[in-house]
Amino acid sequence: MAHAEVMTQPMAGTRDKAASKRDTEWMLALFGTAIGAGVLFLPINAGLGGIWPLILMTLIIAPMTFLAHRGLTRLCLSSKNPNADITQTVTEHFGPKAGSLITLGYFASIYPILLIYGIGITNTVSSLMVNQLGMAEPNRAILSFVLVAALVGVMVTGQKFVLKVTNTLVYPLILVLFGTSVYLIPQWNMSQFEAPVTFSGFMTTVFLTIPVLVFAFNHSPAVSSFASTYRKELGNDAEAHASRTLKRTTMMLVGFTMFFVYSCVLTLSPAELLEAKAANLPIMSVFAQRTDNTLFAWMAQIVAIVAICSSFFGHYMGTREGLQGMIVNKAKREGKSVNMKKVDMGIIAFIILSVWAVAYMNVSVMGMIEALVAPILAMILFILPVYAMKKVPAMRKYDAKINLFTLCMGIIAILGFITANFIL
């Protein structure tokens, strides 16, 4: 008996280590998906209305982010087929027509962001080569193709390798975000607390900034792959373990990102934030201009490149799933068989060529794309899982009053996006 106990303990310890490693890898992958280049604009967008609305938003962003992503994860885990992804799951629950529409929406909320990252990585690397390394302006067609093909190439090597690469990228990102936040502390001032506040101005700021926060903290493109991995490894225990990982991801996201936002907002005056907004400058560029510090110029480029790469991988996963789902659904409706190997090769070619074309042309439609993508994103991330909890038998066990909060935040996010981009 004693011998059996000795043998069991190392095995249990090894299993715990493997589980811990898996959870950490996915936590970093989800964090990397959420922290895209948008983090560099978040302090300007979130801080423009003053410090008091920002404090309220800090209190609500954690439950907003966690509950919405947990709802979507639960939806991904609710299929009868243990190997189903999100597109197959919504088709199973809502039928072929509604499933195809939701799959199209899922694709439309992720693919355009992939295009933005193609433009972003090309511009940032080109800027780094010219301004920091003193090189001649590179050929944009060649540079953009090499960068996009390299990023997609990493994805094609397999999920385990991608998780390792993403995790490696996230560490310097966290380090630079935290380092910048701490570095700015001696420059903090109280001008934000002295700015006049009215109730209507306070509520308007919160209403218009919630959509920005939804966008900044979104890691839904990687949720389907995340849920699928947990279900394959843990079966019926997948939901509890996935929820725990999502909770840790949310705490990490809110902790590092909001510390960075507060540090930036408390360093700059309301007038300086307005100037930055008008000039459409990322926050690190503002500090580089203010201090004439070459270290900041390098850090701005490094943060942007790392943030874009880590976020690209998560959005690639979602884009691939959405495209795959639409192709398979169409083939099934027409009674055709599907060669998944050919479909995958076609998807890889489409993503490389389309992202490369947009990156090469340097299309300036980022604001418009975000305005169109964000409402669809809010519907899929906040509203669809709550609706599924009411209508899908496998999801009814999750129906609770707290879902009303998620539903309200989703509606506010959609109305906020529409108001900010099409009314104001």
Automatic annotation (TrEMBL):
Pfam families: Trp_Tyr_perm. The chain crosses the membrane at residues 26-44, 50-68, 101-121, 141-157, 169-185, 197-217, 251-271, 295-316, 343-363, 369-390, 402-423. InterPro entries: Amino_acid_transport_2. Keywords: Cell inner membrane, Cell membrane, Membrane, Transmembrane, Transmembrane helix, Transport. It is a multi-pass membrane protein. It comes from Endozoicomonas euniceicola. This is HAAAP family serine/threonine permease. The keyword Cell membrane applies. Its main location: membrane. It is found in: Cell inner membrane.
